[in-house]
Amino acid sequence: MKVTFLGTGTSVGVPTVGCDCDTCRSSDPRDNRLRTSLLLEKDGRQVLVDASTDFRQQALRAGIDQIDAILFTHAHADHCFGLDDTRPIMFRHGALSCFASDITWEGLRRVYWYAFEPAHYPGVPKIQAETIDGSFCLYSFEVEPLTVIHGRLPVTAYRIGGFAYVTDCNQIPDETCSRLEGLDVLVIDALRFKTHPTHLCLEDSLRYIDRLKPRRALLTHISHDIKHQETSDNLPAGVEIAYDGLQMEVD
Ligand SMILES: [Zn+2]
Ligand SMILES: [Zn+2]
Ligand SMILES: [Zn+2]
């Protein structure tokens, strides 16, 4: 499976509007972070994980011309406001299968109420709503949804073979931790240095990485507090900061 990081930034993106900090003014492209999202590709199928606020820009940048499904982690704006911008793909290929938990569907249906009206205008998103209830096969992807805690909101993390994506959480329940052992690649939320009520800070993420012992760990959903090179120099072996455009092959 090929993994592409379409975005690795926190909800406001980096650079952040109106900020002139070192990271926001950095000339290192790895300090330019669109909102968090992934593209997974295998056997000619392309699956998007979250439709970020920046989806349109990410799709044009990555040359995405087709998506076969979307897996949603939760319905916060930064993870779902790009769903409307997937319409060109829906217009060309028909309704797009979107997978989300019950609680995420509650949020998505509130945001995209106009797509679920019985007699709708032809320009609205065409959504094939699929509710997640345990592991499932999506084309040749074996998808294992797992629950993590984001303040008080349950968020869906995904394990696919040796790869796991754990964004937007401040706590990983023991039951989920036990499903995240033996990973080749773990992608995990690491918002900033200081603690945060709904996100893992860098120290929290490193503690989970130490417990789960993936072969390779990548940090995502990063704010402007973390400057790529400076922070990378001080990370333990096997831990890296993800950046937009980063690609890897994972079994
Ligand atoms: Zn987020
Ligand atoms: Zn800044
Ligand atoms: Zn969130």
Protein described:
The protein contains 7 helices and 14 strands. The protein has helices at 55-62, 77-80, 87-93, 102-111, 174-179, 202-212, 228-232; strands at residues 2-7, 37-42, 45-49, 69-71, 96-100, 127-131, 136-138, 141-150, 153-160, 163-166, 185-189, 216-220, 239-241, 247-249. The longest helix is centred in the last third of the chain and has 11 residues, at 202-212. Helices cover 20% and strands 28% of the residues. The relative contact order is 0.17. Bound molecules: zinc ion (3 copies). One zinc ion binds at residues 11, 36, 76, 78-79, 168, 221.
- The portion of residues forming beta strands comes to 25-35%
List low-confidence stretches.
Answer: none
> Could you describe the largest sheet, including whether it forms a barrel?
7 strands, mixed
Order of helices and strands: EEEHEHHEHEEEEEHEHEHEE
User: Averaged pLDDT, please?
Assistant: 97
Shape: globular
Total helix count? Answer: 7
Instruction: List the ligand species.
Output: zinc ion
**Overall strand count:** 14
Given helix and strand content, the structural type is alpha/beta
**Cα radius of gyration in angstroms:** 17 Å
Task: Tell me the span between the first and last alpha carbons.
Answer: 6 Å
User: Numbering strands along the chain, what is their spatial order in the largest sheet?
Assistant: 6-5-4-3-2-1-14
Helix content: 10-25%
Walk me through the topology:
Elements: E1 2-7, E2 37-42, E3 45-49, H1 55-62, E4 69-71, H2 77-80, H3 87-93, E5 96-100, H4 102-111, E6 127-131, E7 136-138, E8 141-150, E9 153-160, E10 163-166, H5 174-179, E11 185-189, H6 202-212, E12 216-220, H7 228-232, E13 239-241, E14 247-249
Parallel strand pairs: 3-4, 4-5, 5-6, 10-11, 11-12, 12-13
Antiparallel strand pairs: 1-2, 1-14, 2-3, 7-8, 8-9, 9-10
